[in-house]
Amino acid sequence: MKKLGLDVGEKTIGLAISDALGWTAQGLTTLKWDENNYTTAKEPLRKIIDENEISEAVVGLPRNMNGTIGPRGEASQRFGKWLEKEFKVSVQYWDERLTTMAAERVLLDADVSRQKRKKVIDKMAAVIILQSYLDAKQ
């Protein structure tokens, strides 16, 4: 079964998906949503989860540099609980400290323009979250 990686922000959710064996993560898309209204993400997520037979979701958990969980981390945990209840998938949380910076670095090294980077940064962060989770589990 495939796994879904999510980089949950206030306005967008970056999505990545694993291969069937759970070895590699590929970027999928970036959803626009309203954090104050989870239903704005419900149908696009349902379609992805159903079409890809997702059994597990890995939600990036932003932590402060000292390891504590702040407001953004709490928001990610609320989203993860909703995801688990709404779609009946197992949810894991994965430390996402510095993933956006790592994604930015990869895109800069690939000489991707600033305009294009803005469009794919969340998806790339989701790939890094999911791939680091998959690597740790092998």
Distance N to C terminus: 15 Å
Strand content: 25-35%
Tell me how many strands there are: 5
Please write the string of helix (H) and strand (E) elements. EEEHEHEHH
Architecture in CATH? 2-Layer Sandwich
Shape: globular
Secondary-structure-derived class: alpha/beta
Tally of helical runs: 4
Task: Describe what this molecule looks like in 3D.
The chain has 138 residues and is an alpha/beta fold. It has a single domain, classed as Nucleotidyltransferase, domain 5 (2-Layer Sandwich). It is 47% helix and 26% strand. The protein has 4 helices and 5 strands; from the N terminus they run E-E-E-H-E-H-E-H-H. It has helices at residues 39-51, 71-87, 99-109, 114-137; strands at residues 2-8, 12-18, 25-32, 54-61, 90-95. A 5-stranded mixed β-sheet has the order 3-2-1-4-5, sandwiched between helices. Strand 2 (12-18) and strand 3 (25-32) form a beta hairpin. Helix 3 packs across helix 4. The longest helix has 24 residues, at 114-137. The two termini are 15 Å apart. The model has no long low-confidence stretch (mean pLDDT 90).
Show the helix and strand layout:
Elements: E1 2-8, E2 12-18, E3 25-32, H1 39-51, E4 54-61, H2 71-87, E5 90-95, H3 99-109, H4 114-137
Parallel strand pairs: 1-4, 4-5
Antiparallel strand pairs: 1-2, 2-3
Helix pairs in contact: 3-4
Properties at a glance:
single chain; 138 residues; Nucleotidyltransferase, domain 5; five-stranded mixed sheet; 5 strands; hydrolase; YqgF; nuclease
